[in-house]
Amino acid sequence: MASLIIPFRVLFFLMLLLDLSSYVFASLLPGVEATLTRAKEAETLLKWKSSLDSNSQTLLSTLWVGGSHCNWTGITCDYDGSITNLNLGNYGLRGTLHSLDFLSFPHLMMLDLPNNSLYGGIPSHIGNLSKLTFLDLSYNNFSGNIPSEICLLTNLKKISLGRNKISGSIPPEIGRLSSVSEIHFFDNYLSGSIPEEVGSLSNLTILNLSGNNLSGSIPYNIGRLGSLSLLYLHLNGLSGPIPVSIGSLHNLTQVILLDNCLNGSIPEEVGMIRLVNMIDFSDNYLTGPIPKSIGNLSNLVWLYLYDNSLSGSIPSEIGQLSFLSDLQLLNNSLTDVIPASIGNLTNLSRLKLYKNKLFGSIPQEVGRLQHLKVLQLFDNNFSGSIPASIGNLTNLSTLDLYQNKLSGSIPQEVGRLQNLTRLLVSNNNIIGKITPEIGLLSNPQNLSQ
String of b and e for 244-262 (b: at least 16 CB within 10 Å)? Predict the structure, then answer.
């Protein structure tokens, strides 16, 4: 019996020792893994550095000094010494990202490399950066397509690829970036349509796709982007109408659709974007009237609708836009008179209504626009005399009234405009000559009768 007890005790001791060894190994394992990760990160960074051009290598050799890569310039590490941020913007680095093995950075949250001279394609293995929240590769020379693997980065909050040479289409998988709040793809060579999947990005606050070769229509479901504040789609080849769903973007502050091929009318629903301070629908093929609902936009500062085929009258409701600073409706087919309510726009600094079919007299109420610097009404059908109230516009530097049917003489009150440097009134029915008072204008560069 005793002979059986001894082996049992030995077996129990061995099992206890094995269990203790497993516990010790398990407790040491995270430290071992962290050490291996740190070594791999440093090795990968040095390998990438060696792939860059000689000037970049020399620069990084001065920035990456010391035994611990966590102390190198542009590197931020967590408590365990693993890299979380790689910030090397504005250093003029030249090379590719192909030697930067992203698998070596399991904890990277920020990849910030803007304003360098990096080129080549964006590697597909960038999709391995599962914890990445911030990606900025803007102002470089990257080319090729946007890899669909970039859409695996579901923790991304900001992605900026602007001002590169990236081509191809925007991958529809972009709809997977459920956390993203900012997308900046401006100034590239992107083509194709804006994917419908963009409409599922409920946290999006900035969408900047300007300066590309995008075509097709603006997706109707863009109206689902309830958090959107800035919508920049200008300088593309977008066609079709402005979707009425734009009225659902209640947090929108700026919408720029300049220089596309948009057609149809401006939807009445635009008057529902109550927070908007800038609307630019210029240089398209828009037709129909300016909607009266635009008078609801009490925060509007800039309104640009020039270079379209808009018709009808300027709505009197435009006088409700008390913060408006810049109103440009030039080069359309607007008719009727300038509404007297224009005099309510006391913050207006530029009023450009030239190259339309406006008629009637220039309203006396224009004289209430005491912040006005530029008044351009040329190439219309205005008649009657130049209102003497224009003499109240003491900040005015440019007054263009030529190519109308104005009559009478230039009012002496214009002589009070000491900041006026340009006065053009030719091709009217103006009688008399420029009076001595007007001739005393300071710094006149262009006085034409």
Answer: ebbbbbeebbbbbbbbbeb
- The answer to whether the CB of 433 falls within 8 A of the CB of 410 is no
Longest CA–CA separation in the chain, Å: 137
8 Å CB contact between 414 and 420:
yes
Classified as helix, coil or strand, 56 is: helix
Rounded distance, CA 109 to CA 85, Å? 6
Q: Give the residue from 315, 405, 296 showing the smallest Cα distance to 361.
A: 405
SS3 state of residue 38: helix
CA 291 to chain centre: 25
- 186 Cβ neighbours under 8 A, 6+ residues apart: 162, 163, 208, 209, 210, 211, 212, 232
Q: How far apart are CA 315 and CA 306, in angstroms?
A: 16
Q: Measure CA of the first residue to CA of the last residue in the chain; give whole Å.
A: 130
Strands 94-95 and 110-112 turn out to be unpaired
For 71, other C-beta atoms within 10 Å of its C-beta total 11
DSSP string, 282-295: -SSEEEEPPPGGGG
> Where is 12: in which H helix or E strand?
helix 2-51
> H helices then E strands: how many in the chain?
3, 32
More confident residue, 367 or 67: 367
Match 């990445």 to its residue by tokens: 132
**Which one, of 257, 262, 294, lies nearest residue 276 by Cα?**
294
pLDDT at 22: 54
pLDDT beyond 80 at 446: no
Q: Interhelix angle for 54-63 vs 2-51, to 10°?
A: 130
- Identify the CA nearest to 181 among candidates 211, 148, 226, 137: 226
**How far is Cα 342 from Cα 351, in angstroms, rounded to an integer?**
10
Give the count of beta carbons closer than 10 Å to the beta carbon of residue 190: 23
User: Where are any strands of DSSP class E within 205-257?
Assistant: 206-208, 213-214, 230-232, 239-240, 254-256
DSSP 102: G
Measured distance CA(315)–CA(120) in Å, rounded? 52
Q: What is the pLDDT of residue 67?
A: 82
Per the CB < 8 A criterion, the answer to whether 259 and 283 are in contact is: yes
pTM of whole model > 0.85?
Answer: yes
Q: How do residues 365-421 score in pLDDT, each as one tens digit?
A: 999 999 999 999 999 999 999 999 999 999 999 999 999 999 999 999 999 999 999
User: Whole-angstrom Cα distance, residue 344 to residue 302?
Assistant: 16
Residue type, 95: G
Question: Do residues 442 and 415 lie in contact, with contact meaning Cβ atoms separated by under 8 Å?
Answer: no
